[in-house]
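By convention, the token line describes the chain's fold. To illustrate:
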Amino acid sequence: MERKIRVVQYGCGKMAKFLMRYVIEHGGEIVGAYDANPVVVGKDIGEIMEVDNCNVIIKDAKDFDSDLKILKPDVCIVATMSTIKDIYESFKICAENGVNAISTCEEALYPWNSSPKLTEELDKLAKENNCTLSGSGYPDMYWGTLIVTLAGSLHKISKINGSSSYNVEDYGIALAEGHGAGLTVEEFNKEVGLYNEYSYEEISKIIERGEYIPSYMWNQNGWLCEKLGLTIISQTQRCEPHIAPKDIYSSTLDMTIKKGDCLGMSAIVTTTTEEGITFETECIGKVYEEGEVDKNIWSFEGEPATSIVVSEPATVELTCATLVNSIPKLIDAEPGYITTNHMRNNDYMIKPMNEYVETK
């Protein structure tokens, strides 16, 4: 592509600070920004990025659809919430306007195994209007591409174990609440841990009704199995609360989580496959206590047994950089809802991002 890539930012919260700056520093152009929060509407995006004014004012999300028809961006970055149901309308508007869209929404990475009906609707719209929808972020690379690459170095695998933790304070109120932060244990078990005793068959029926709320590893295991050519025969999840050992203040929730209440959760997903490889993957999202840091640990049982530890990953920044580095391949991808396990690996962009777009 011989010109700058034109990008619209939808959702101007904590993640947008990095997303927009990374786009600009990689030679892209932010041509519009939108949010539903009146606190940020009317601000210059430079204020969000903590840089000089950029002469792009954040507009109300109600103007998003009509403005896309005028702006005609190449890509929209959606950084709002964590489920396909939450971002469905913004993706639908992008697809109807023929605008490629990519989201930090965790379920968006591989929604086919948790929200198939909504994903099929978006896939159809995107194909009709010749654009691509997808999801990316930290899990895409550090729970996905990295794991597949390591698997390619092994002779035999019997089991893959993964555990990753992150501070919900870094991502905003919707994610913190989705992890049960601030709930009593009783509330947690009713609202978050409700699928703990469900079989794969029972969960499959809930998915068919469009009522399932997956943990992040639910979608990740689907992404990994498809990429590795594995056939899933069973998948279940358990969500366990992390209990506050003392009163701990959450700035994101603007409340003190009382001793004995929930700081967040561990979500453990177990997947078995026809090929004999089992996955047990865990994501830990909670309000951190003093001294706690992010972690990412994966191990392979087999020949040879292998493990990898990513020490203290900058999860927020890595999420944003991974997504921004995905923009060229998003533009190049075939129309539809195309998950990143069907795209080429990210490039490290030393040239302006438009020079990595291969399609004319």
Remarks:
- Residues 138-151 form the longest helix (14 residues).
- The mean pLDDT is 96.
- The two ends are 6 Å apart (CA to CA).
- The first strand starts at residue 6 and ends at 10.
